[in-house]
């Protein structure tokens, strides 16, 4: 899976960078979590700082256009993002399970 960054826009008020990217893949569209991990590795960020907002694959194509928000810290992501987007990207799930176990 290859990721090419198309556009990066700084948003200092929300402590994030809005990223538009193109993803080239061999098989079916990869899962949101695998795209998140690959994009985080490409940008040298922690996976909990990356929220994948949109993945759009045209029928029969092997490329996907995506939109993501890359935060300065996981705390900023949890403060700004909607709960359903945090759930989809599995951000904050590790802390909740650790708190339940304690």
Can you describe this structure?
This protein is of the alpha+beta class and 102 residues long. It has one domain (2-96): 2-Layer Sandwich (Alpha-Beta Plaits). Helices cover 33% and strands 35% of the residues. It has four helices and four strands. It has helices at residues 32-43, 74-80, 83-88, 93-101; strands spanning 2-11, 16-24, 50-57, 63-71. A four-stranded antiparallel sheet has the order 1-2-4-3. The longest helix has 12 residues, at 32-43. The chain is globular. The N and C termini lie far apart (38 Å).
Features:
alpha+beta; four-stranded antiparallel beta sheet; 4 strands; 102 residues; Alpha-Beta Plaits; globular
CATH class: Alpha Beta
- Total number of β-strand segments? 4
| Estimated radius of gyration | 14 Å
How many separate domains?
Answer: 1
Share of helix among residues?
A: 25-40%
How are the elements arranged and paired?
Layout: E1 2-11, E2 16-24, H1 32-43, E3 50-57, E4 63-71, H2 74-80, H3 83-88, H4 93-101
Antiparallel strand pairs: 1-2, 2-4, 3-4
A few lines on this structure:
This protein is of the alpha+beta class. Helices cover 33% and strands 35% of the residues. It contains four helices and four strands.
